């Protein structure tokens, strides 16, 4: 059990109350709910809980957290900084090693970013930046991926392709998504948040469309 | 102090304070034949003589080399300290470094290292390291924190800093470093007045020989040097400049110092006189009491009086001059002339201007106040003028022009910014006022200089600590007032804009 009847949020007024959450092997969870429902808060709590259990977690935050002045390659390399010592990272910053470059190159090609590898992030479009944040998470790899609207700036086809790729690379995935069809196509389990509570937690096939629409009402 | 202060209250408070201290200010004309000196100076300045090119060239080159070496050393030290600036001990150390003026540092270092290259470099590098550490820490703090949060939790501190913190703060740091180099050129020039082989030294010797035409030439070249800084200081060329500085400064001839000067300085010279033969509490108290009552207190009072009047006059100069560089106010030609005037006034350090005025008026508070208010007023006027220029395209189409625009549209919008800038420079004005003592004005620097001249370094140290404490106190006072004015956005002034660049 990652979370057991917990209240989540900042300060006196919690954003979510009474949240229990477990993540079984092979599960792909989509978080649904209107903005402000607490998806980001829940992801933050899951991140801490998964790390406490000793998992290797890859993260795609909503605000991406890229360093605009550095190249796409270096931003992606940041996914594995904790695997190496400061000296390795320092020399890699000055001149990335060939094997790291090749590894990131593979990730970038699956994301359609190969031509931009050595360009700085500040010159990229919104969709390209989002894919750089995904590249960082994919290069990190690990047991679990947590993503907060990770494909919101991409078109539907590209977004779905990347979601499939994520599903193939990570054992467990939790994503906050706003495109309901995309979520139902991707997830093995859908969690709905409304009014500070988890109001829905089931497999996509078991959920009536009307219940999902009620989340956004 | 009340929770909030209005702009009117702050203005009136500073103004009334200046009026109250005015009767106690020594504004006498002590110069011998001021009109004659002024006339000869004007004649000399109108007909600059560049024939002493060898002396002039050497002074200019060394001025640049000392500035480059000092700013580079201070910048690197500041960069190393910046990430740890939150630590209270480091913060206190940096405050101590920067509250002592470059000239005071140089006077101290002269005792240990003599008239050597290292004295000049360290005199700039030490206070600048304290300033750089503070400003770079602010740049790091204001940069986007989200990339750092997105890194894997186990990332080590150095990698976190190099990948996700430093790249984000690099752009403002670069602009600030260039601005600091401009300051460094002024500091370096002024170090010449106390014997280092930079521009001040050459200027002083020209003046002593009455060669005003050669002095004029060197000052024209100096202004040109500062005005063209962006042309010759390119980021690619930084290593070349640093290498040149190292080569030139290491080959500089300097008179040898006696063996063990540093040890004598630390173990004997700076130990309070009554304690040199063992602990004597009563003698120490008497010694300290004498310094405080006969030197520190009169110096402190004179410094505060002089700085207060200079602050208000600085405000007046800025208030009336900033419109001069706005074409919509002063016309296209007027704006060019205004720019020229402000560039000249802000290129010359306060100390050098004061030196010129002392030649004319003699050593009273008058030259110090004039120099401080012209230089600082020109800097604030320039910054405000640039803000005003940025405002102009946003004005309504039927907005007035000329003085009406200045009074009705620009002044009201920029008054808060104006006041914050004046308060920000309060600390700087005070630091400079103390140093004016070296020119014979009776501020703290006068007593420090006399103590050094009599080789009573123990006294000089006490007075330096007092001067530093005063600067730090005014700094925190200014910050408290600025906070209560609600000019939070102006917490750190956009000094970057001095160079006409924006982050």
UniProtKB/TrEMBL annotation, chain A:
* Superkingdom of source: Bacteria
UniProt keyword list: ATP-binding, Hydrolase, Nucleotide-binding
Q: What is its EC number?
A: 3.6.3.28
- Give an example GO molecular function: transmembrane transporter activity
Asked if the Swiss-Prot or TrEMBL record annotates the protein with the keyword Transcription, the reply is no
Q: Name one GO cellular component term.
A: plasma membrane
UniProt keyword annotation of ATP-binding present: yes
The ABC transporter domain covers: 1-217
Q: What is this protein called?
A: ABC-type phosphate/phosphonate transport system, ATPase component
Q: What does the organism's lineage look like at the top? A: Bacteria, Pseudomonadati, Pseudomonadota, Alphaproteobacteria, Rhodobacterales
UniProtKB/TrEMBL annotation, chain B:
- What InterPro entries does the record point to? MetI-like_sf
Q: Which GO terms describe its cellular component?
A: plasma membrane
Topology class, membrane? Multi-pass membrane protein
Q: Which keywords does UniProt give here? A: Cell membrane, Membrane, Transmembrane, Transmembrane helix, Transport
- Look up keyword Transport and say if it applies: yes
- Annotated Gene3D superfamilies: MetI-like (1.10.3720.10)
Subcellular compartments = Cell membrane
**Name this protein carries in UniProt:** ABC-type phosphate/phosphonate transport system, permease component
